[in-house]
Design goal:
15 helices; Rossmann fold; 13 strands; 6-stranded parallel β-sheet; 359 residues; alpha/beta
Length: 359
């Protein structure tokens, strides 16, 4: 069977990482995979893989809404005709990663192919445009894969909707080095995110300013230029105990020297449908602090493998970090449970379930 996979923006965020695992798994199962995406992200690592044909285009994110909309519309027109081109190719499935490649979904349906969506977002918590895309998805999709029960709850469609939690590549678990004693001694707070307002970058900087007895590291999925411009205009001075890093090809070293990992997404502005960084952290044997709602909250049991605290209660987050990094018994218990919890998110199981959906 041929699987034509479409992904709009190939960067180093969660959804292309998951797609990388899916593509590798499909090829190992003997499928021919065509991957249509942009250049410059984690999916580039698949180049040269036997059984894979890549077709890439230039696409960059713009903060100017007009420019962004024009670029998006142009790419949708391209992928529409690419998907339509499969009309005479038998045994082909169109696989849409995120709800953004809507042109490919429409082209696939017109070509009378099965269209499978791997739905990573929560459209209800985003803009009107996302909600429109979600409605189109529910209309054109043969099957929809949701990553959490929370995300599934917002879809009106009931048939052929599957809940398959994300998982990490098996290679990630082999490279992280869980060591609770070392992690507690290092007392380093880590967050991975972006400069989007809802991600909690300013609040993380404020926590570093308050907790000068601990080290803080912030890894942003942005260029050095974008980060420098942002920090220059930042209202809060960057404290000496905070290191800020640009987009990374490999985040494993950061987890291997961290002690606790935060996700400070503001639930009033956006909701995490899963939380891949939280899973990465727990796989490294690290406690996490996450929001109280969303798919990411389903992964955390308060006081067992981490804590659920909203960013608008920053004082509570501050006190929680202090407790975790000063009470060794508590830390070791949280770290042990986090590692055990991560074992439930198996790449093998995820790929098996996705394979069953594809058929």
């Amino acid at each position: 069977m041929r699987i034509a996979c479409f992904h709009l923006f190939n960067d180093y965020s969660g959804s292309p990482k998951v797609l990388r695992s899916v593509v590798s798994g499909l090829i190992e199962e003997g499928h021919q995979v065509d991957l249509i995406t942009s250049r410059g992200g984690v999916l580039d690592r698949l180049k040269g893989m036997q059984g894979l044909r890549m077709r890439q285009y230039n696409y960059t994110f713009s903060r100017n809404i007009l420019v962004r909309s024009m670029r998006y519309a142009w790419i949708q027109l391209q992928v529409f005709f690419i998907a339509l081109g499969y009309v005479f190719k038998r045994d082909t499935v169109i696989y849409i990663n995120t709800i953004l490649p809507v042109g490919a979904a429409l082209g696939g349906r017109i070509a009378c192919k099965r269209v499978i969506y791997h739905y990573h977002e929560n459209a209800k918590a985003k803009s009107t445009a996302y909600r429109v895309l979600a409605k189109i998805m529910q209309f054109v999709a043969s099957d929809i894969i949701c990553v959490s029960k929370y995300q599934r709850s917002f879809l009106r469609r009931r048939k052929r909707v599957h809940i398959i939690p994300n998982a990490l590549r098996a290679g990630f678990a082999k490279r992280v080095e869980p060591d609770a004693k070392r992690a507690f001694a290092d007392k380093r707070v880590l967050m991975l995110g972006s400069l989007k307002r809802y991600k909690g970058t300013d609040e993380f900087i404020e926590l570093a300013r308050r907790l000068t007895c601990f080290n803080f590291e912030l890894v942003l999925n942005e260029s050095e230029e974008s980060i420098a411009k942002y920090l220059k205009n930042c209202k809060t001075a960057i404290p000496g105990n905070l290191a800020v890093h640009p987009r990374q090809d490999d985040v494993v070293p950061f987890y291997n020297r961290a002690s606790v990992v935060l996700n400070l997404t503001n639930k009033k502005l956006a909701i995490e449908t899963f939380g891949l960084t939280a899973l990465e952290a727990m796989t490294a044997g690290l406690p996490v602090i996450v929001p109280t709602v969303g798919g990411i909250a389903e992964m955390v049991e308060d006081g067992k493998n981490g804590y659920r605290i909203d960013v608008d209660n920053l004082e509570k987050v501050e006190y929680c970090i202090q407790d975790i990094l000063t009470d060794e018994k508590l830390f070791l218990s949280l770290a042990k449970n986090a590692l055990e919890c991560s074992a439930g998110y198996s790449e093998k199981n995820m790929l098996k379930m996705i394979g069953q959906v594809i058929g």
